[in-house]
Request: fold
Amino acid sequence: MRIRNYFLFLVFLGLLFLTGCSEKSNNLLISQDNGVTATLTIEPSTPVSMENTRFMITLMEGDQPVKGADMILNLTMPGMKMPENKINAVEKEPGSYSNTTLLSMAGDWHLQADVTHNAKVYTFDFDFKAK
Reply:
């Protein structure tokens, strides 16, 4: 009986360890504005300050990609006054825009994607954390 309980305890600890050490892949964020959906993917899924972070945004209107848009990414930290940090996102595939930048520090970040397409302006907001 003791050996069985000891074995179950070790299995429980092992599962607890594996669960606690797994990295969440919570890098898919969605925002909508006037019928257009923006899906943000961040690589790596948890950005690291002063290392390259890639931001990829897919724009869809219904089931159609939004092609040929102009997109500016504005990165800020909500709890801190920072200098302007804007980058252009470049269309790599129809409806898929991306760029890579460095985040200056760990903490809470806000990404605002300002999109102009066919004389319409859209704003998409995303919040994420960097370590």
Notes: The chain has one domain: 24-130. Residues 2-21 form the longest helix (20 residues). Confidence is low (pLDDT under 50) at residues 4-25.
